[in-house]
Amino acid sequence: MSMKTADGRSRATTRPAVRWADACPSRAALLLALLVWTVLTAPAGAAGTTVTDSAGRKVQLPSEIHRILAAGPPAAAMVYALAPDKLIGWPHGLEPGALALLPAKYAALPVVGRLTSKTGGLTPTEISALRPDVIVDIGDVEPRYVALANRLQAETGIPYLLFDGSLAGSPARLRGLGEVLGAADGGEAAANYAARELNAIALGLATIPQAQRLRIYYARGAMGLETVTSGSLLGEVFALAGGVNVVPASGDAEIAKVSLAQIQDWNPDVIVTEDPAIFRRIAADSQWASLKALQDKRLYLAPELPFGWIDEPPGVNRLLGLSWLVERLYPAVFRDDLRKEAKEFFQLFYHRAPSESELDGLLAPNG
Q1: 239 Cβ neighbours under 8 A, 6+ residues apart
Q2: Domain 210-363: which CATH number of 3.30.420.10, 3.40.50.1980, 3.40.50.300, 3.30.930.10
Q3: pTM for this one?
């Protein structure tokens, strides 16, 4: 899915089995609304299976699903995690470093394009030519995306599922979509991992008073002056990690452009980026040097391969980034073995565990 700009376009060493909504009671009602979607009339794979997606659309699926078209990068990350052999191809080209971390047969999948882009996305004719059994879209569930789903389904005759992309909703979405796509076992394993991580982080954060939560600025764009807003899908990871995004909400905009003067006025405790060039620029620029984050040596470079750990795509790939982030924000509380956790996540979601040397590269310079 495309993103909107502001100008108008100790994690518990023992991991108790506590529900996420119980760990954060104030979020319970919201999460119920985000998580619930229902498979109606029959189990996955039966003729006439009907699914209600996050937009409340009742979509009838074929009796068998062999070819899945991901509408954009978040959906591709989800479908790849659950049913990699059914993914038709990638929405965009992956960089060599990302491809090297994936099994060869999946790295070799073709680039088929995406349904939403600045150039208009795939046309109905192009979609039909790919012969998908179903289209899966994950991200913001807004009227324009609902309209797109309805239009393309009507024009192509291909079932189109649209699901909420919130990170907090990952367990239910992984489990439910795994059932729908004929990958129930993988969906259950991935859902259990997501629930365990979210629960453990919530329990750890419950020990940190609100007044001690760190204020974060996330730097992106060529100069580090583009960022994500509070309350946005992209900014969700910072809230779940117990941070306070210094950039206020701006309507339904996910991305904002700011000035260095604004950042200096906010004076964040922590600055995070996923871009090595921005990391080097901020570290060497005297105009940033007076910020508290720089004074306290709390400028962090997040890993970005094979898919962003913090940033794009705003999908399940960020679950590992969430673990990485809380260990940097609150090291006295969260002290797990991130290398071990990365291996588990990679094997489960990317179908290949990284080698020790690959982990060294992924986690430097903040591993």
Answers
A1: 230, 231, 245
A2: 3.40.50.1980
A3: 0.83
